[in-house]
Amino acid sequence: MKILSLIPYKVLPARAGGPRHITLQNKYMSRLVELICVTTKNNDPSCAEYPVMNILGTSPLRYINPLYFFTLRKIIRQERVTHLMLEHPYYGWLGILLKMFTGVKLITRSSNIEAIRWKSMGKWWWRILFAYEKLTHRKSDYNLFVQEDDRQFAITRFGLRPELCHVATYGIEMQGIPPAQECAEIKKQIKQQYNIAGDEHLLFFNSAFGYKPNDDAFLLLTEQVAPLLRQKQGFRYKIVVCGMNIPDSIARRSFPDIIIAGFVDDITRYYKAADVFLNPLIDGGGIKTKLVDSLVYNRNAVSTVNGAIGVDPLWCNGKLLIVANEDMAAFASAIVQATGITADTPPAFFDHFYGGNIARDAVKFLQTDYRNL
pTM for this structure? Predict the structure, then answer.
């Protein structure tokens, strides 16, 4: 088996959850089978353990450039590639053609159901994407999904055979919680940095701004959750907000009990320092990687139902509290409750999300010719 991973956007270096999902799975898969990556010119090959050919352009027209068929056909033949893996359905036309003319097995790896994600954001053309996404998956020999709800959706709505669909979820590299003493020291440092009193709970929100579901979550946090928390008698807190692309209208604004930290060099320090991670997302698809990361660092977390898709509370030893979408009164009450949770993230959580285990199972799935069974 030799896999060509086709990634049509920047993921190296991986600074956000989506790119980390892709690059980490490729990293662990490349330790089990041969894997090369073809991607755009703005990627840094030195960030990967596997060969990277950053030869695709960065113009939006790259998604419809017919010349890439000849470029990739040549690479597939020279490198003796057996499996072509697409990220999302956007290069479905190219993958289907390459399958027809080279005989490679086609894999489509989806971080979410793209059409439904765009539908949730009110895009009129989501039905066109739905039809194209359905075609891409139906023409694929193997389909990888980030969580079970997406897999079931594809089986029922795209009409896929269940044995051709596998869950390869967001992966992590840690296999256990960080030392408590280390987290306590980092919390002390961050509280001093932002003048947070010792008896104030450190609540943490992390998001990439400029994406509507994340922006909406921030508005819910500032306009509904924070005012409700201020009504909780005796509950003292500060909310620290980190993230990329925070607009000036937010960065320069003063919010009561909210600290806009913006983009930080080492986000893991903030996870380790937090008392509670906040995840009030009500739109958008796929697994919310930030929620997984918070539990990896042994933080308690409060999430909406939508924000917790793909993370079963049974894996979390009581550290994840889930409330109904848009019920911010319940969300605020759950935050207060979460500050009293003293349990640790259990080994079962790490077993489920460890990247090596995910890659091992995915490769086993890809090595079986289910279409001929």
Answer: 0.91
